[in-house]
Amino acid sequence: MKVTIAGAGMAGLVAAVRLRELGHEPRVLEKGTRPGGSMLLSSCVVWRHIEWARFRAECPGGDEQLQRLIWERLGDGLRWLESLGAEPVWLDTENPLTTGRRYEPRTLTRLLVEAAGEVELEAPLPTDAEPPVLLATGGFPGRLARERGLLLRANPWSDGDGLDFGVAFGAASTAGMDEFYGRVMPAPPARIREADFVPLAQLYGREARVFTDDWREITPPQVAWHENDLAQLIGPRAWYVVTETNERIEAARAAGATIDQREEGVAVHVAAAVTHTIGGLQVDTRARVAGADGLWAAGVDAGGVATGGYASGLAQALVLGLAAAESIASG
C-alpha cells in the first residue's frame, strides 16, 4: 500500500519506518529543507510521568484514552527505537517525577531517515493528496506565535498545514487550541539561534519574582516543576528578577539580552517562546482522525493529550506514529 506522510519529524519518520517493516511503501513529504522537525532542535528527552494519577492530574483536560495509550506504550516504543540502533545518552530522565530516555537528536534523526527511506524535501503536502494520508507536520506553533506576539522555539515550517488539511476534510479539533508548551527565553534584542533553544531557556523561574513589562508584579503563588505555566503566564514580554545571577542569565547576557541591576535584584527581560501546540486534530487510539475517513494524525498534529498541562511531545510523536502505521497497515 502507498501511504503519504506529511512531515519528517519524530512522528512522520517513526511511522514511515514502521510501515516499511510491515511491508508498505510510505512517501514522506517534508515542507522544510531538512528532516528532523522540532525533534532535531530539542534536548530529545522522550518521557512519561511515572505515576498514571499524576499524568491525569497534571493534564486534566486531556483525552484519558490517548493519555493511557502513551503511558502504557512508551516503554515498548523506546525498545523499538533501540532495536533500530538508537543509543540513549541517558538511561532515564534524571527527574524523580518522570521516566524515559534521552537521545542525541542529530544521531536519532539520521538513524530514522536511513530506516524510513527517501524523504522528499521542500515538498509540501498537496491539497489533493489521496488517502491514506498521515498528518505529522508538527502542529501550528508558528501560527500561534505570530497571533500572540510570542517567540518561536520550534521547527520554522510547522505552521498548521496538517491542521488545515484535516479541517478541510471535515476533521474535528480538540480543546486547548490556545494552549502551548514553551519556554521562557531572553527577549529581543537577544540573538537566539536554533542551536540556542535548549541552552538559553531561562529555567530558574521557580526562584524568580515575575513582573510585567511595566513593572507590575505577577509572581504566581506556585510554579510547576516544568515551568510551562510561566511561559503561559508571561506572554510577549516580562521580567524575571532574582537575587543573584546564574549560568543561564550569563548565557542570555552573552547573547545580547537586556539585563539590569535593580533594587529588587538582577532583572532579566524575557519572553515566552512556543515549542509546540497542545490543541489539534481529534484522533482515537489508532491515530485515526475523527470526521475524516482516510486521515491519520500523529505527533502534535493530534491534539487533546496534554490539555491543561504539559506532557512529552516526543513521547506523543513516538507512540502515535507507531499506532498510526499499524492502523494504516491493518486496513
Describe the structure.
This protein has helices at 10-21, 52-58, 64-83, 105-116, 141-148, 161-168, 228-234, 247-254, 313-330; strands spanning 2-6, 25-30, 45-49, 98-102, 119-121, 133-135, 151-152, 180-186, 209-212, 238-242, 259-262, 265-277, 295-297. The longest helix is centred in the N-terminal third of the chain and has 20 residues, at 64-83. The protein is an alpha/beta fold. Strands 7, 8, 9, 10, 11 and 12 form a six-stranded mixed β-sheet that branches. A five-stranded parallel β-sheet has the order 5-2-1-6-13, with helices on both faces. The chain folds into two domains: 2-173 and 279-330, FAD/NAD(P)-binding domain; 180-274, no CATH class. 30% of the residues lie in helices and 20% in strands. Helix 1 packs parallel to helix 4, helix 1 runs parallel beside helix 9 and helix 3 packs across helix 9 (313-330). It has nine helices and 13 strands.
